[in-house]
Amino acid sequence: MPTVFITGASRGLGLELARQYAADGWRVIATCRSPATADELNQLAAASGMQVFALDVASGTSIESARQTMSGVPIDVLLNNAGLFGPKAGADKDLGQSFGSIRYEVLEEVWRTNTVGPLRITEALIENLASSSQRKVVTISSGIASIASTEGGLYAYRSSKAAVNMIMATLAKDLAPRGVHTLAVCPGWTRTRMGGQNAPLTAQISVTGIRARVAELDATMSGQFRLYDGSLLAW
Hints:
alpha/beta; Rossmann fold; 7-stranded parallel sheet; single chain; 7 strands
């Protein structure tokens, strides 16, 4: 039975990833910052038997605790899904991510979760990954990280995802000798709390595509940036 380790599994894409992998018979280790309040995840865990525990990818202490908890457990797929967009818009529609009014504490918080977090958890769990059969690291990125198609603004979120794309591409080189493959994948504009209810894609459709990308990930694909449907995305 293969094992998948998912961050940010309490809602949205993370919850749907946990649901679909569990339904396919995988051993699912679903993590989130506050399991005690993750009602849907806990209900899913009770029905499927998946393991749930607390993990804040912005906290080195929390990541070290996860490393110790997972000691000796092979992880076939690490799914870095936990992400932070930043604050909701205020009455003036300011997200603190526009030039001239950038809130640097917001930028730093977003980077800790979206950029540093995936690198740190990958490093913490590398022995688990290397000892597994599949050895895959997949990070949920975003199309707005593409430098080729930037429209300006959203400095914190956009830059954090562009940076994590570079991290995934770099990890592909550094981890290749250990047979570990990496991928950055854009889920598309999806109907989640982050994406909003006007998004055209359901989480089910997006996650089905993401899982297909995970399944086909190999050495020839490692380090790439793809859309959930398999299309290559420009850096």
